[in-house]
Amino acid sequence: MLLVFLRHALPLCLISLSALSQATFPLTGTVTNATTGEPIPRARVVVTPLTSTGEAREIAFTDLAGAFRFPTLPAGKYSLFAQKPRFKANGLSPGPPIDLSGPLESLPVPLVPYGVIAGQVADAGGQPLRYVRVDAYRQVVVLGYHQLTRAGTAATDDRGNFRIWDLPAGRYFVRAMSRAGGTFSLADESAPSTVGRQAFAPVYAGGFERLAEAIPTDLAAGQQARADFRLPNLPAYRVRGTVTGLAPALPVRFELRRFDTEPTEPRTFFNPATGVFTMFDLLPGAYQLHIRQGERSAMLTAEAPVKVGPGDVAPILLEALPPTTLTLRSEGPGTFPCTSLLIEADKPLPRATSLNSDIPERVPPGEYHVLASCSDAVVERIRYGRTEILESSRLTIPTGAPPAELTVTRSTRSGILLIARQGETARSPVLLLPGQAATGAPRLLNDEEISARGLKLLPGKYTLHALRDRLAPFRDPAFLGQFSYGSSVQIENDQTTQVVIEKHSQP
């Protein structure tokens, strides 16, 4: 009898499982403004099966009440993605997936609104200034250094008003740069007669030229913050010159730098056929002119000092040169070659160049942060030519520099450091500061480096600090001067040392 029962029951079970796998259920929800709770109409909602490569996704749009509905979705697990202009796109994956094993209704999908920074640019008498470029920057930390990244830009209208939109919540530094500039290509040597003889110094909100003195603008989600400028008009001058060696059909960028201030792009008229250029609206002072054409490994560059003041400035003659060829060399005991990463320093939109041993790379001139790693050894020295750069991790490549080598010296002399974090520091990042016989730059350790295997270090004395903020500018002397506590440890060759960190070093 049992065999007869099983023979009839088994097909019924298979039919039930097959029916469940083919079952469909509705998925409904509402897309709302995460700040105000208001519904968002015409938002795009996409659901994708987690087992799909994307072809099986389905799309719906919310109605006037912010509601969306997928009436018949096969049972399974899904990710959900919602987007709407002026809001930060929101995905419910890679968080917990949606498990659709039955009807799922009234799923809340909040979208965080972007913010706006708006204001007016006027002269000292309150008259609006037209066509002034205004940039909004965010301050980020790259390899322990503060660095600006451009988040948005706008130009003033006929009323001197500007509006920079689609900005995530955060702290911004707003800067009135100059009259909307950049490089304009001309077919001959003539220039519009509307160019004036007055200009203003690029300043941050509050009237300061340097970032260290600038007044930040704090922007909440969905907020419209305001930044106004009153700029005195000052006598301005023109500078002419000729640059040779450029390609005839590629765009060219002119950039001016002053000591201790961020670079600007002056309004420049350029004749590609002759290489003749004229820069306008320049205030008196000493500058460094940078001319760029092309991208990365094919970039042509030219540089020259420029002194602007009353009276005629002699025409500048420059020659554009190709990037420097840089080759990474590994020396010292070790089986596997080392690698290095060069990250542009002090650039609003930094980029990186990867170097692999014995493979020449073309690297544009500039300032770089340097990272080097060797999989089977410890980095003991980094040299650019004869210049030691390990402790600073900064590299300067001048324009027209001859081919050079970046040499990484490996060492098998090392000890193991085991780091334990307890109490309030259990999930905190740890800053490692070399001292005395130890060499190298400060390092912010991640969870993978603080592992059961320990950290391999050169012999010497080190200090460890548990930080509250993973984005701390840990190479800034002013920041390091705030520490009130640290754990010192001596690393010996071929020995393992343990240290326990229980308190934060930051106040």
Structure description:
The chain has two helices and 44 strands. The radius of gyration is 30 Å and the shape is globular. The chain folds into four domains: 22-113, Immunoglobulin-like; 116-319, Immunoglobulin-like (Sandwich), CATH 2.60.40.1120; 324-411, Sandwich (Immunoglobulin-like), CATH 2.60.40; 415-501, Immunoglobulin-like, CATH 2.60.40. The strands form eleven sheets. Strands 2, 3, 5, 7 and 8 form a five-stranded antiparallel β-sheet that branches. Strands 11, 12, 14, 17 and 18 form a five-stranded antiparallel β-sheet that branches. The chain has 507 residues and is mainly beta. The protein is 5% helix and 50% strand.
Offer a quick outline of the entry.
It is built from two helices and 44 strands. It has 507 residues and is mainly β.
Q: Mind sketching the topology for me?
A:
Elements: H1 2-21, E1 24-33, E2 44-49, E3 58-61, E4 67-74, E5 76-83, E6 87-88, E7 90-91, E8 98-100, E9 104-113, E10 115-123, E11 132-142, E12 145-155, E13 161-167, E14 170-179, E15 182-185, E16 198-199, E17 203-204, E18 217-219, E19 224-226, E20 229-231, E21 234-235, E22 237-244, E23 252-257, E24 267-270, E25 276-282, E26 285-293, E27 300-308, E28 316-319, E29 324-331, E30 339-344, E31 352-356, E32 361-363, E33 366-373, E34 378-384, E35 387-388, E36 394-397, E37 404-411, E38 415-421, E39 430-435, E40 443-445, E41 455-457, E42 460-466, H2 477-480, E43 487-491, E44 496-501
